[in-house]
Amino acid sequence: MAGQLILRRADFFASTAQAVAVADRYPQNVFAEHTHDFCELVLVWRGNGLHVLNDRPYRITRGDLFYIRAEDKHAYASVNDLVLQNVIYCPDRLRLNVDWGANIPGFLDARANPHWRLGSNGMALVRPVIAQLEQESQKDDPHAFELSELLFAQLVLTLNRYRFATDGPAASGQEALLDKLITALAGSLNRSFVLEKFCEQEQCSERALRQQFRTQTGMTVNHYLRQLRICHAQYLLQHTEMMVSEVAMQCGFEDSNYFSVVFNREIGMTPVQWRHRSRKAA
Question: Which residues does the UniProt site feature Interaction with sigma-70 point to (predicted)?
């Protein structure tokens, strides 16, 4: 990994005894591909951007949650008012008798899905925990280190409990409608999505939901869905042998020519050109 940018724990932790700290990104700017010699949890509060994790692109916005291992490589691109927090930790420094492996995806099994979504209720609960953790992690004393680890345990358990589900604790209220909508869009990569039908089913105002979506994410519903589909197309082009027409169908485009036009407009090259470049780079 010659020339790879590596973030070092000595630059982010107050002491070699400190296990957990918080790194704010208000906002998160474009950041080149990098790894760390520590792990991190990434929680997105607002805005949108492109998060490329281990060569897989994710279009991210409010409620997206990532568990990043030290050896993972990732980068941020195409950001728009992207506000997130990184809770960073060193597994070898954790001392509490907590089943970390059961509550942190990838802690023990590298095959675990690193991408979750957190519902509105969960976001409201973890915000003050992260704020207190941030305060304690700025102090250089043993009591602060111990309290930080206790808060970190509370955080990861809360994240695990409130991982978003449409029938979960966040399934009511205006903000929960946004959670449901984002989840529904993510599940509509290869089929049509009609916002009017969604709003009829949820008995909510389409106009109000569109406005709320744009306020929180900085994107229209259609733009966000198109970006999700393009990200999925990039993944399929790089990691499968599907023909471009098959990729188009898998990403909700019935016309492969139209798919190529949209892909070229968003990425700056045709699907074939992008496949060739990404594989050559890999």
Answer: 246
Name the segment(s) of the chain with CATH classification 1.10.10.60: 172-282
Topology adopted by domain 172-282: Arc Repressor Mutant, subunit A (1.10.10)
Q: Radius of gyration (Cα) for the chain, nearest Å?
A: 20
**pLDDT for res 165:** 57
Quick one: which H or E segment has residue 230? helix 221-239
Predicted TM-score (pTM) of this structure: 0.86
Given a contact cutoff of 8 angstroms between Cβ atoms, the answer to whether 244 and 257 are in contact is: no
Do residues 217 and 61 make contact, with C-beta atoms less than 8 angstroms apart? Answer: yes
Query: Length of the chain in residues, anyone?
Result: 282
pLDDT exceeds 50 at position 35: yes
175-191 residue pLDDT tens: 788 889 998 999 999 99
Kindly report, as residue ranges, where domains of CATH 2.60.120.280 are found in the chain.
5-161
Contact call for residues 170 and 164 (beta carbons, < 8 A): yes
E strand or H helix at 267: helix 256-267
Please check whether residue 114 is in contact with residue 70, taking contact to mean a CB–CB distance below 8 angstroms. Answer: no
The CATH code for residues 5-161 is 2.60.120.280
Confidence of residue 109 (pLDDT cuts 50, 70, 90): confident
Residues 117-141 as b/e (b if ≥16 CB within 10 A, e otherwise) read bbbbbbbebbeebbebbbebbeeee
pLDDT of residue 167: 46
Task: Assess whether pLDDT exceeds 90 at residue 80.
Answer: no
Distance CA 114, CA 264 (A): 29
23: left (phi over 0), alpha (psi -120 to 50) or beta: beta
